[in-house]
Amino acid sequence: GDNQQLHVAGMCHSNTRGGRRINGFGAPLNSYQIATWVLYAWVILEFVIFIAPFLHRDSSFLWSVVAGFFVSAISTFGWAWVCTAHDPTDVQAVEAWKHPTVANDTTADTYCLYCSANVSSNCKHCRACDRCVDDFDHHCVYLNNCIHKGSYRAFIGLLVSVVIMMAIWIACNAFVAIVALDDGSPSRVALKGNSITLSPLQTANSCSH
To answer: Mind listing the pLDDT tens digit for each residue in 92-151?
Structure first.
């Protein structure tokens, strides 16, 4: 209700600095970011409810695939959190905002009109976040944050985790769909060697034909 909305608003406000976003949790949240959270939750729920229950427990291979999905899903969440919570703001700009009485050299090439501060020479101003970012690479709308030298490793870890997670999800959905089309209904299956062991119901249906 109202208390939950106030909590979310307070959390977003705590991730801003003088009206500027500190990290990806700062207001305003991006619509692509919110859609990504919803999609992530839906993928996991769909896998838990519709995919995992149709796999035989006696198949070590299939359950290792399920385990791989959850490991990559947890890794995706972890790396996404690190990338979103990271503050890529230039240190010199932050110091200038902390000490507004200290004069800035407005004639220097490193002076940023938008930040009203002298910044590092390798900075670039992100208009989406309204702050200068050290070693700026790009602004990610899905994380609502800037990616730079300090978050490269976490961002690459996120990309690898997402690719593995979605590859397993697509493969398992395709596998269950193929079995469902062949059997007429979703069935439990198990892989043993190079063969597929059918469920008792599917075996009975095959024998009746």
So the answer is: 888 888 887 677 787 888 899 888 888 988 899 998 888 999 899 999 999 999 999 999
Best CA proximity match to 137, nearest among 188, 206, 86:
86
ω before 28 within 30° of 0 (cis)? yes
Q: Are 127 and 112 in contact, with CB atoms under 8 Å apart?
A: no
Whether this prediction's pTM lies above 0.70 is answered by yes
Amino acid type, 109: D
Single-letter code of the amino acid located at 36: T
Three-state helix/strand/coil letters over the chain: CHHHHHHHHHHHHHCEECCEECCCCCCCCCHHHHHHHHHHHHHHHHHHHHHHHHECCCCHHHHHHHHHHHHHHHHHHHHHHHHHHCCCECHHHHHHHHCCCCCCCCCCCCEECCCCEECCCCEEEECCCCEEEECEEEEECCCCEEEEHHHHHHHHHHHHHHHHHHHHHHHHHHHHHHHHHHHCCCCCEEEECCEEECCHHHHHHHHHC
Strand partners, 148: 136
Residue type, 203: T
Block residue for tokens 């991006």: 30
- Tokens 């990616």 locate to 147
